[in-house]
Design brief:
The structure holds 2 protein chains of 2 kinds. By secondary structure, chain A is mostly helical. Helices cover about 70% and strands about 5% of the residues of chain A. In chain A, strands 1-2 form a two-stranded antiparallel ribbon. By secondary structure, chain B is an all-alpha fold. The chains are: A mainly alpha, B mainly alpha. At the A-B interface, α6, α7, α12 and α14 of A face α6, α7, α11 and α13 of B.
């Protein structure tokens, strides 16, 4: 432990592939392996649960397309359960990555997608659509929410820009814009018809109920582009966390890196919110859990956050579907109910490293 | 000598500023008494309060307008000071009274009350709200102070609060989604409002807020030290453990009293301390009183607007206040945050 070699290979695992190189903190590898194993197990378990119980072995057969002897299995597994479960994981990944980036940029442990007005902007747009024009809301909802989220984030960024993007000003302007958006949302909720308000509240809570492969494809593409961008930004995030002056001294193009990373974070969160509603808490909690598991270096922090976010939303969805069956709890409620005690446990226990 | 004179001038300037803010608050309070579905001329307001003649106007003044105005002033000042304390304690500009979990605790308790009792009077809302708020605040504080790694770190307090608030908020949403009636009953309360608050309700909740406001005055100097960090505070001879405990208690009293009286009103507690900081700098001996005045002014202004904007209906004060205050706040953040 004490005698580190010159190239630090006791601490880092470096993978070089032609021009690209990537490094991972070694101690994050077992954590990632455990999280991946948990994700696989929980996916199978989640698919097997529901009104029609399917044995885990049959689930695996149905997923890979083998005959299970019951023609219903393929339909239930592949068309009903798998899409929402996969979407839950993708959404969790996106929210967690977004939160980790925002906490890194601002150096503020309370930062999360809500702080940049993304959730509130998307929430306002969606609630306006749901309460003012309930008839047309079905297919438009994701697009409108996406526009609302991106719009609020753009507004905040423009208002906070002053020949540079100070994170402090960004947070403060974010507070202001988020306050306006959530005030208007509250007003719409006070005024609206009660059934529309209930639908709006459900959306504001976040849910993956009834999502199809179409949603999964869109979200998957979104992540396929953005997640690598986030991971590539790990080194810049490490430097930015030190503060503006040290980052500049280390040769980081601060404004360029910050703008790029904010764009990635905003796009990740907006995409997630558009697909599954404003699921709160994942973006806040996942980076903290990851930091306690693998430490502050973003090369390990980002992937572990992403995996934990996926696991959290996946498990929350499983619990939401089963705990008061045949009724369902929206996933956004359960994320906090199970995520909060875990983070508090970590806070109280501390990391023994 | 010159430095002394300069600091004396600065102190005079700040004193004058406080006096100006106080005048604005008084003006807004008078406006709040005069404005409403029944307009009462400014000239009659003072006479009506101090020597009521029994006319309809005087009756409205003493039973409706006066308690409502006092509630607005008290709630605004309390939320603002609670916010200032939380921001100093956690050294986090995003901290607000809501981060103590008090709003979430109060909301959960109120929703449970409505679920169990059907259609309770406002006083029941207040009672349940108060109990929920104080319990949640105590729990956050216990979690933050429990032994463990980083037990004294300010992030831990903020994080414990944010996490507990999210937890309680989820339970509340679950109850609201399961029961449409409760949602319909509670939604106006959760937006925050001063409508229908009478003397009885004020008497129930005001002691907590008044006690908190009084205690915050001698705390202000220690808050400045704490806001500079634990090491600095210790170096300056502040017993930071005790001060943190007392300051946390004061913030819980202030925020709990306000949410019981007016429902969860956001924005003021977050923004008023920043406004004060933009104006008078980093010294909490000035930030605390100025925050209190600015908070009182913001809520009063919002409440007057709430009665005027959509006559004969009322907009919840929390909504209007954010709409009035946020653009101003953004403007200040833009102009005062140059580095």
């Amino acid at each position: 432990m004490s005698a580190k070699r010159q190239d630090g290979n006791d601490v880092w695992l470096v993978v070089r592939l032609r021009g690209l190189s990537m490094r991972l903190p070694r101690r994050s590898l077992p954590v990632m392996a455990v999280l991946l194993a948990l994700l696989a197990t929980m996916t199978v378990l989640s698919v097997s649960q529901g009104e029609l119980r399917i044995a885990p072995f049959e689930v695996v057969r149905a997923v890979v397309g083998l005959d299970t002897g019951n023609p219903d299995h393929a339909l239930v597994v592949r068309e009903f359960r798998l899409p929402r479960i996969v979407l839950a994981m993708l959404v969790g990944t996106a929210l967690a990555l977004s939160g980790a980036i925002l906490q890194g940029i601002t150096g503020n442990g309370l930062a999360e997608p809500g702080v940049l007005g993304i959730s509130q902007g998307a929430g306002l747009a969606a609630v306006a659509l749901l309460t003012l024009s309930p008839a047309t809301s079905g297919n438009l909802l994701p697009a409108v929410a996406l526009l609302g989220g991106l719009g609020a984030a753009a507004l905040i960024y423009l208002l906070a820009w002053d020949s540079g993007s100070s994170p402090m000003r960004l947070l403060l302007v974010g507070i202001g814009v988020a306050a306006v958006a959530s005030a208007l949302t509250t007003y719409l909720i006070v005024l609206g018809g009660i059934t529309e308000v209930q639908r709006a509240l459900l959306w504001l809570t976040g849910s993956v109920y009834g999502r199809s492969w179409g949603h999964v494809r869109t979200m998957g593409l979104w992540l396929l582009v953005l997640a690598p961008c986030a991971l590539l930004g790990a080194r810049a995030l490490n430097v930015l966390t030190l503060g503006e002056a040290p980052a500049k001294a280390l040769g980081q193009r601060v404004n360029f890196a910050r703008t790029g990373l904010i764009l990635v974070a905003v796009a990740l969160a907006s995409g997630a919110v558009a697909m599954a509603g404003a699921i709160s808490f994942v973006g806040l909690v996942a980076p903290h859990v990851a930091r306690r598991l693998v430490g502050p270096a973003h090369e390990g922090l980002l992937p572990v956050s992403a995996l934990f976010g996926a696991l959290l939303v996946l498990v929350a969805d499983l619990i939401g579907r089963t705990v008061i069956a045949p009724a369902q709890l929206p996933v956004g409620i359960v994320t906090a109910v199970i995520g909060a005690p875990y983070l508090l446990y970590l806070l109280l226990r501390g990391r023994s490293a | 000598m010159t430095g002394n004179r300069a600091s004396a001038r600065r102190r005079f300037g700040r004193g004058a500023l406080l006096a100006l803010a106080a005048l604005v608050v008084i003006g807004l309070a008078l406006a709040s008494m005069s404005v409403g579905s029944m307009r009462i001329p400014f000239g009659e307001v003072l006479g009506g309060i101090f020597s009521p003649s029994g006319s309809i106007n005087d009756l409205i003044l003493t039973t409706v307008r006066l308690p409502r105005t006092l509630a607005g002033l008290l709630v605004g000042a309390s939320l603002a000071v609670a916010g200032a304390i939380m921001q100093a304690l956690t050294r986090n500009p995003l901290a607000s009274p809501g981060i103590l979990g008090v709003n979430a605790g109060a909301a959960l308790a109120v929703v449970i009350a409505v679920l169990l009792l059907g259609n309770p009077p406002l006083a029941t809302y207040a009672l349940f709200g108060l109990v929920g708020a104080l319990l949640a605040g105590a729990l956050v504080y216990a979690l933050a102070a429990a032994p463990g790694v980083g037990a004294s770190s300010p992030l831990r307090l903020a994080l414990a609060g944010a996490v507990l608030a999210a937890f309680l908020g989820s339970l509340t949403t679950a109850l609201l989604l399961l029961d449409l009636n409760t949602l319909d009953q509670v939604r106006f309360w959760t937006a925050g409002s001063l409508a229908g608050r009478d003397m009885e309700l004020l008497r129930l909740t005001a002691p907590y807020m008044l006690a908190g406001l009084l205690l915050s005055v001698p705390l202000a100097r220690q808050l400045t030290a704490l806001s500079l960090g634990d090491d600095v505070a210790r170096g300056l001879g502040v017993r930071s453990g005790w001060i943190k405990l007392v300051a946390g208690l004061v913030a819980v009293l202030l925020a709990g009293g306000s949410v019981a009286l007016a429902g969860p009103i956001g924005f003021v507690g977050l923004v008023a301390p920043h406004l004060a900081r933009f104006i008078v700098g980093v010294d909490y001996r000035w930030i605390v009183p100025l925050s209190a005045l600015l908070g009182a002014a913001l809520v009063s202004l919002g409440d007057v607007g709430a009665r005027l904007a959509a006559k004969p209906n009322e907009i919840p004060v929390g909504v209007l206040m954010a709409l009035i205050g946020a653009p101003f706040f953004i403007y200040l953040a833009r102009t005062r945050m140059r580095r």
